[in-house]
Amino acid sequence: MTQTAAAVPWGRLLPEARQEAVGIVDAACVRLWLGEVAARLEAERDFLTQLDAAIGDADHGVNMHRGFTAVMTKIAGIEPATPGQLLKTTGRTFVSTVGGAAGPLYGTAFLQAGEVLGDHERFGPRLLLDALRASLEGVQRIGAASVGDKTMVDALTPALGAYELELRMGGSLETAASGAREAAAEGMRGTIPLQARKGRASYLGPRSVGHQDPGATSTALMFAALEHAVIADRSQRFAGGARRPVSGS
Ligand SMILES: [Mg+2]
Question: What CATH fold (topology level) applies to the domain 22-239?
Answer without folding.
Answer: 1.25.40
